[in-house]
Write a structure and sequence with these properties.
Length: about 240
């Protein structure tokens, strides 16, 4: 009986330790990305904040990793109806970041791709709106929700406001240069994408813990179940 009572406490401590390790990893990754940005700016042969710059490649990598985490989380049964919304939004953002490459194939191709993704996502939302609403009520209570919304506001609100031409012209006056405005905006976008990546990692970690916890519960129930002893051959012969 004492072992049974200690199981939740031990599991809670293990979960806390894993969470702290993940957040330390987020801190180190953020610092590494910032340092990588600095190193990339020292290389004169790479155009600064172009489509092939470090910032753009890092944004693409963060979005692709986020999609992979969401895919794995949904496969383990976490928020089966809500995760496709996040997936659709991030997939559209990934396509938007590749606008120059897609437009080189067909004019406005990225817009058609984003429109198709939006159509599928909206259709899914309308069809499963009640189940999505229930899952949203649970998702709001998780740390992943705060991370994701922080990244969302950073990318789609704060970076746009901070990247306004008028703002930086007012700040710098005659010393205004477009690359300063572009650098601030793109760097803020990258930070927002990293926050959303961390949210997706948290969802994937939550899905893994729940999946492993379900297996552990099943094993404990099976271990505690009374065993049925069949009569031995000797007992049957004696009978």
């Amino acid at each position: 009986m004492p072992d049974i009572q200690l199981e939740p406490l031990v599991a809670s401590r293990v979960s806390l330790k894993k969470t702290l390790v993940r957040y330390l990893g987020y801190l180190l990754l953020t610092a590494l990305v910032c340092q990588g940005l600095y190193w990339s700016l020292l290389l004169e042969e790479i155009p600064r904040f172009s489509e092939t710059s470090f910032v753009e490649l890092a944004q693409t990598a963060a979005l692709a990793a986020s999609l992979a985490c969401l895919w794995c989380a949904r496969r383990k049964g976490l928020y089966s109806y809500g995760i496709p919304l996040l997936f659709g939004w991030l997939l559209a953002s990934l396509v938007r970041e590749q606008d120059a490459m897609l437009d080189s194939i067909i004019d406005d191709l990225w817009q058609w791709c984003v429109g198709l993704i939006a159509l599928v996502t909206v259709t899914h939302t309308v069809r499963h709106r009640r189940r999505i609403a229930r899952e949203l009520g649970q998702f709001i209570q998780e740390s992943a929700f705060g991370l994701f919304m922080g990244g969302f506001f950073t990318v789609y609100v704060f970076s746009r406001l901070m990247g306004r031409h008028e703002l930086w012209q007012a700040v710098l006056g005659s010393a205004y240069e477009y690359r300063i405005k572009s650098g601030v905006e793109e760097s803020l976008e990258l930070m927002g994408y990293l926050l959303m990546l961390y949210a997706c990692i948290e969802l994937w970690a939550r899905a893994r813990e729940r999946h492993q916890g379900g297996k552990g519960d099943a094993r404990r129930v099976f271990a505690r179940a009374p065993r049925l002893h069949t009569p031995s051959e000797k007992q049957r012969n004696h009978a």
